[in-house]
Inverse folding.
């Protein structure tokens, strides 16, 4: 029986895919499995029409004689190459994205064990007007590392722990095997297969308009938010991160917003918002406002396993514009729920800009 066909094996791997055994520390990413499942099943149908799920991308640069160009490579885990439930939506997404840049590439990853790999990968290319899935072989300079993905699965399989797993059986045990496979493959892809990936929680397709959706559970930040004196974009945040790391940020010149409530958006997603702005794509940010819950709540404070939230959450949403961001905030990784202790710098926008979604 292969890795991908054994429920207990899949649950074991998901228990530790976002867990560092050396320091016995999980990342907030693991609890986010559950909030994202809630978003897909309950929230998204209320705020969007037809949507394709599971896409992530990496940014890359290419140049000609005149200028440097920025583009994207796109990746999605699917259960089957012959038929998957979002096949037509994915084709429509690829078709619309190709109109925005012919240098973009699109890859599908299938969790399927062969004699050489735990995954089969195909690149989607257009041949004589038809989209075809072409066999992909890893080589130098490619955006995806199959070797690192296979090594990560091997590492997880060989981990030995005392005691029984507590997270995955409790919180993911009701998922069917295809969903467990997709979730595990997505985590391995994001953690090891790609460099600096950005995931898109949902991509809504409305006629010929694309709308990117980002969903987070968070409480508003207060008191640690600084007023920026120039536009808050990815370039600004990169510079702020450099200044903070080198103890060169002059807080005496930065106005601190004490009383206003703000929501943060990570630097990588600010970059994605810029990409959307340049390519006439709308970007909707939806937040589960958990300000009435403890700052770092346990998952069982939020959810009942196999059911849903214990209390009706407050959901707020906004179609973002770059001009919304005129503040920024930062935390150390161990304060922010990240897997590492890396500095986390975010753009910040006022919570009052958001609209409350109807229940």
């Amino acid at each position: 029986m292969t890795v991908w066909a054994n429920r207990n094996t899949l649950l074991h791997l998901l228990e530790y895919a976002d867990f560092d055994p050396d320091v016995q520390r999980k990342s907030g990413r693991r609890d986010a499995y559950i909030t994202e499942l809630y978003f897909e099943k309950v929230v998204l149908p209320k705020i969007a029409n037809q949507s394709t799920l599971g896409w992530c991308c990496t940014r890359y640069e290419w140049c000609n004689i005149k200028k440097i160009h920025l583009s994207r490579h796109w990746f999605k885990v699917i259960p089957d190459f012959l038929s998957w439930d979002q096949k037509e939506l994915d084709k429509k997404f690829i078709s619309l994205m190709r109109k925005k840049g012919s240098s973009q590439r699109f890859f599908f990853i299938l969790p399927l064990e062969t004699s050489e790999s735990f995954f089969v990968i195909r690149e989607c290319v257009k041949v004589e007007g038809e989209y075809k899935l072409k066999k992909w072989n890893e080589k130098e300079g490619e955006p995806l590392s199959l070797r690192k993905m296979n090594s990560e699965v091997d590492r997880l399989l060989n981990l030995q722990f005392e005691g029984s797993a507590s997270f995955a059986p409790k919180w993911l045990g009701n998922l069917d095997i295809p969903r467990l496979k997709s979730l595990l493959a997505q985590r391995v892809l994001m953690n090891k297969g790609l460099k600096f990936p950005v995931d898109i929680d949902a991509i809504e397709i409305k006629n010929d308009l694309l709308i990117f959706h980002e969903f987070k559970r968070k409480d508003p930040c207060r008191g640690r938010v600084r007023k920026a004196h120039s536009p808050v974009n990815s370039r600004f945040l990169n510079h702020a991160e450099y200044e903070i790391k080198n103890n060169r940020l002059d807080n005496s010149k930065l106005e601190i917003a004490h009383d206003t409530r703000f929501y943060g958006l990570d630097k990588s997603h600010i970059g994605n918002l810029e990409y959307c702005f340049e390519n006439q794509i709308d970007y909707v940010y939806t937040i589960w406002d958990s300000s009435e819950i403890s700052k770092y709540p346990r998952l069982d404070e939020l959810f009942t396993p196999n059911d849903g939230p214990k209390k009706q959450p407050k959901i707020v949403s906004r179609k973002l514009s770059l001009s919304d961001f005129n503040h920024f905030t930062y935390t150390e990784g161990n304060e922010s729920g990240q897997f590492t202790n890396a500095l986390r710098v975010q753009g910040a926008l006022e919570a009052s800009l958001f609209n409350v979604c109807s229940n």
